[in-house]
Amino acid sequence: MAGAELERVSSLVKRAGVKVLAPAALLLVLAFIAHGFPKHPSDVDVYRLGAQTFLRGRSIYTQLPVSTFGGALPYTYPPSSAVLFVPLALIPPAIGFPLLTAATSLALIPLVLAYRDSSPDLRGLLAKPWVVLAAAIALLVGHPVANTIYWGQINVLLMLLVALDCLSPNPRWPRGLLIGIAAAVKLTPAGFVLFFLLRKDYRAVATSALGFLALTAITFALAPSDSVFYWTNRVFHATSMNIGGPLANESVFASLHKLGLHGTALTLTGALTVIAVVVMAWLGTRRALTDGELPLALGVNAAAVQLISPISWSHQWVLALPTAAVVLASGYRRHDLRLLITGGIGVAIIWLAPHYWMPQNPAVWTIPEKIAGSTYQLAALALLAVTSYRQLAKRPPRRPRTGSTGELDFELAA
């Protein structure tokens, strides 16, 4: 009996050790990888300088000091962001910058959990803690997150707020508040209000607006001159400022410019494409929501937001990789080769960022290079086109996942 009891205790200890040590080891790997990434933290230095300038009572738009890392960069964000960045101004950069990297890395865990808890295909695959951490590491080494860390950006933190607001089944906060806060830091997250509109969650829409307006009003009281300047001037000239080359800008207008369009042709084609993207986003997001596919709906919404933004750096496409992973997981769970191939291609495109392999000057791109350099946009347009087609085809909502779901397979694989 004593031997059997000892063996039972030993087995329990081993199982407990695996449950504790495996996640702990992967957490250390997560931190080690993030710490070892190459970094050029010019963006976080702009955040720090903006907050520092705000605390000194100067204009963050006309009196920003020169960054040690990025040179004379403009402050392009709403003035309320400088208020929220104040902690970066109160601690040395040698501490603040690594803390942002750590926060970005750790934010991947609740991001993965948000997708897992809202996707039946991911719920089983990500049931164990060590698998969740492994998925976070996979996101970490993909281009959008790795490049976010390289520049010292806050994309992961903002998209975590968006994902939690949209995917959490029973949030402890007023739904919509997190998107309102995120939009007060960068305007782009405001586009995710479409998700709430199509769910007819008008309270969340109102909460997003109130959260945004509250932070904006507080900032007007704290920095009235900068607030007036931003909302009457700077916000309309985001694309005219010298803040980087065109290679990684994945917006509609930047993409068409890289393909050789200029002047009136660029304006007309860009405007028509933006209108088409908005219409497809409305239809596609609505269809995914009707089918109960919240992660897919969020991915469709995100694809449109990134395409129509005036500036859409590829490191801002944080939600693209989880969206492709949902397709891949669907293929695995259903043993569907089409979905496995499609999801695998999507993951590879977002993970590897082929546009960075192209010559730095898009004007010299060959046709194959133009295709490879536009893979982010092509993948996003394909997702929008197929999901909106399903809505226009007026096919009945998909049945619960009790077996084969050919309709959804078509939507994801296409």
Walk me through the structure.
- Residues 394-414 are annotated as: Disordered.
- It is found in: Cell membrane.
- GO terms for molecular function: hexosyltransferase activity.
- It is a single chain.
- 69% of the residues lie in helices and 0% in strands.
- It has helices spanning 2-36, 42-55, 79-84, 86-90, 93-118, 120-125, 129-141, 143-151, 155-167, 177-185, 193-198, 202-222, 224-232, 252-258, 263-290, 294-308, 320-334, 337-352, 367-372, 375-392, 406-413.
- The protein has 2 domains: 38-236, no CATH class; 244-414, no CATH class.
- The protein is mainly alpha-helical.
- The protein is globular and about 60 Å long.
- The model is unreliable at 400-414 (pLDDT under 50).
- The chain is built from 21 helices and no strands.
* Strand content range: under 5%
Major β-sheet annotation:
none
Q: Quote the average pLDDT.
A: 86
> What are the secondary-structure elements, in order, as H or E?
HHHHHHHHHHHHHHHHHHHHH
Number of strands: 0
Q: Pick out the low-confidence regions.
A: 400-414
- How many alpha or pi helices? 21
Category from helices, strands and their pairing: mainly alpha
CA distance, first residue to last residue: 61 Å
Into which percent range does the helicity of residues fall? Answer: 55-70%
Gyration radius, rounded? 22 Å
How many structural domains are formed by the residues?
Answer: 2
**Overall geometry:** globular
